[in-house]
Amino acid sequence: MMANIVQQIVITLLTAILVENLVLSKFLGMCPFLGVTQKTSTAAGMGLAVTFVVVVTAGLAWILNYALLVPNHMEYLQTMTYILIIAALVQFVETVVRKFIPPLYKALGIYLPLITTNCAVLGVPLLNTAKNYDLLMSLVYSFGAGAGFTLALILFSGVRERMDKADIPATLRGIPSALFAATLVSMSFFGFQGLFAS
Amino acid sequence: MSSQPFDTPKAWDIAVAGLIKENPTLKMILGCCPTLAVTTAVGNGLGMGLATTAVLMCSNMAISLLRGVIPEKVRIPSYIIIIAGFVTVVMYVLKAWLPELDKALGIYIPLIVANCILLARAEMFAAKYKPFPSLLDGLFMGLGFTLALFTISTVREILGSGTWFGLVLTKNLWAPAVLMILPPGGFLAFGLVITGMNRLTNGKIATPMCATCSPERCAP
Predict the structure, then answer these.
(1) B163 forms bridges with which residues in the sheet?
(2) Tens of pLDDT along B62-88?
(3) Which residues in chain A have their CB less than 8 angstroms from residue B87's CB?
């Protein structure tokens, strides 16, 4: 029984990080993926901020969904509830972190306001709901998704730091060349497809 | 936002800006998630584009009507709630009348809420101008988005499955490159279409920006 749960957790975690990578196979969180990956340090900061908010949001979303919305047959309010949780939570986290953990605020502060309209943060609770996960699996999957997001951002920022030095034709400079690089990174992640029989 | 009368842009200018000059997807690089995720088939791309257009028109109109009422400090959450309301309506309309499209688009329909285009247009246009121009702006920005999705999904469907709107095109010509309808193909096709647009309009791409972020936040 215990071993079963542990096995399930490991598989869910690896699936979320590698097979269903949030950015490279689900295309969620493209704005930060293209926007803040010029430097590895900012990419890592953004990744951590998103991971943190995603896990807390997913937990709260699960609780509200199954404690309030489903028993009252108000599933149609799901989208609105989730986005409200995110908006409120981001504001709350920003205030609390600024007050009590100044070094963390210094590291993550600038990324927090951007997260409100980050589709990764809204996408993960929606995916959890679509997959009918229980609370534990929701949290595990969300953590994995956040870790996968961070991994993709850091890897991609490495590629882009290199590309900065390359001589690229004017028409391709900036976004197009970044997208072509993303094609290759995405292709390498594609190798993980079918890692686990679902 | 102040309700100072701005010089309202002409309908023609709004149309050109939305479709070409400030095309939200190809020029402003907003709303990349659905652009990459749902463009595996032309039908899906078109459906996503039109669903977003509907939401964008409604939200622009509503936000423009409320532009003197919403306090500046809580405007972003207010816009998001308005947008989320219209997205929910569109989601249930699709569920009722186009269940197949709803299934194909899956979570990307509720994710219209987090599409940067909507918040960007609310901030940049609807909060400043009268309802009718805002409605037009929503229509043409939405159509610009649809046009981009249509182009990208055309490239992907023809190359990736050898069909167009499900119509078999390249049956005996070449074997379809399945990669194009897989995730990497999304990045590739998007990159190609932006390159083409760059080449055609000879213009520079604006820096990618999320609607809520000022430049100093985006590039710390």
Answers:
(1) B168
(2) 999 998 899 988 888 889 899 999 999
(3) 79
**A162 has pLDDT over 50:** yes
pLDDT (0 to 100) of residue B3: 47
Between residues A116 and B120, the one the model is more confident about: B120
Q: Looking at chain B, list the stretches that DSSP marks H as alpha helix, in order from N- to C-terminal side.
A: 11-16, 32-37, 42-65, 75-97, 99-105, 116-121, 131-161, 183-201, 215-218
| CA B160, B161, B163, B165 torsion-angle sign | negative
The alpha carbon of residue A18 is apart from the nearest alpha carbon of chain B, in Å, by 13
What is the distance between the alpha carbons of residues B195 and B19, in angstroms, rounded to a whole number? 17
Mean pLDDT of B105-134: 89
* Chain B residues 78-97 with a CB less than 8 Å from chain A: 80-81, 84-85, 87-88, 91-92
The domain ranges of chain A are: 36-186
Q: What are phi and psi of B133, to 5 degrees?
A: -60, -35
Token pair of B117 as six digits: 């285009």
C-beta atoms of A117 and B88 within 8 A:
no
Beta bridge partners of B168: B163
Q: Where are the domains of chain B?
A: 11-214
CB nearest to B182's CB, from A42, A182, A190: A190
